[in-house]
Specification:
By secondary structure, the protein is of the alpha+beta class. The protein has eight helices and ten strands. The protein has two domains: 82 residues, Arc Repressor Mutant, subunit A; 165 residues, Chorismate lyase-like (Chorismate lyase, 3-Layer(aba) Sandwich), CATH 3.40.1410.
Length: 263
């Protein structure tokens, strides 16, 4: 698919002022949207073409490609180019509420809304939320805290039709409580993945940690009791504040599971 089509699709999306992001973060998201339209094993355009079409320097493109390679979306082959990588094997995890989890640990949860915008779903979000690419989606970026210490940065995507008139102040508390109390939506389950990563410039600044600090990347898709997709959430948890704990058992001899524990 021609990159010009991809670029036209991308820039037709926002219907309100986008949040402030670094050039690298924005370029990464644009290339990721392109990857979503391509087949596994397909070669992405060379750095020079991406630089020209996206209007950024080759250095910015290279940094974005490096990040996407670390995250497992791309693979570089010397002398051949950069290719779309086979998706990683997903590990099922238990869905949890950040607010409830922190309360169980005797900590006081809080959220600060960094940005709240509305955009068109586009190809990638449309697929994840099972909505039309032309449907409006609310995008909220929140800083999650416990006892006033930064713990995670979360980017929430939810169809606008499900949360009419939502405000930044609404998101200062539990989003799941808000869904249930105001909109009558109960989260019944979903799918969630977790993988190690490092923080980029934007995430490091928000979390107050050094650049390229170790972190956990969560991606969660949640559904209500009618099977509708309610949200797609990407969360970056500080690696110095969390560790993974896994309960093990022999098959048929009791439950096993994995959860993220605050240090």
């Amino acid at each position: 698919m021609a990159l010009t089509n991809f670029r036209g699709h991308w820039y037709s999306g926002p219907v309100s002022a986008p949040p402030k992001t670094t050039k690298q973060s924005h370029t990464r998201q644009q290339i990721l949207d392109l990857i979503e339209t391509m087949q596994v094993g397909a070669a992405i355009p060379p750095e020079r073409k991406l630089s020209t079409d996206l209007g950024v320097s080759r250095l910015t493109v290279r940094a974005a490609l490096d990040q996407l390679e670390r995250e497992g979306y791309l693979v570089r082959r010397r002398g051949s180019g950069t290719f779309v990588r086979e998706p990683k094997i997903a590990q099922e995890l238990t869905i949890t509420s950040f607010s409830d989890d922190m309360r169980r640990r005797g900590l006081r949860p809080a959220s600060r809304t960094l940005s709240l915008t509305t955009t068109l779903a586009g190809a990638r979000l449309g697929r994840l939320l099972t909505v039309s690419p032309s449907e409006e989606v609310v995008v909220a970026k929140r800083l999650r805290m416990a006892d006033e210490e930064t713990m995670a940065i979360e980017t929430l995507h939810v169809p606008s039709s499900m949360v009419p008139d939502i405000t930044e102040r609404d998101l200062e508390g539990s989003f799941y409580d808000l869904l249930a109390d105001r909109y009558g939506i109960e989260i019944a389950g979903g799918t969630q993945s977790i993988e190690p990563t490092v923080t980029n410039e934007e995430e490091s600044e928000a979390l107050g940690v050094p650049l390229h600090s170790p972190a956990f990347l969560f991606e969660r898709t949640s559904r209500d009791d009618e099977g509708r997709v309610v949200e797609f959430v990407q969360s970056i948890y500080r690696g110095d504040r969390y560790r993974l704990i896994t309960e093990l058992s022999r098959r048929g001899r009791g439950p096993a599971g994995m959860h993220l524990a605050a240090r």
